[in-house]
Amino acid sequence: MSGGQFHLDPYIEVHSCIHAADARLKLSALLIFMLSTALLPAGAWAAYILLAAVLFSSMLLSQIPFGLLLRRSFVLELPLVLVVLPLLFKPGGSELLHLQAAGQSLVMTSDGLLRFSSILLKMGLSIQAAVLLSAVTRFEDVLVGLSGLGYPKLLNAILALMWRYMFILAAEARRMLAARTARSGRPAYAGSKGGGFFWGVRVTGGMAGTLLLRSLERAERVYQAMKARGYDGEVRALEARQLSAGEKRKIVAMAMVALLLLLAARQVYRG
Question: Which residue ranges make up each domain of the chain?
Answer without folding.
Answer: 10-138+242-268, 152-183+204-240
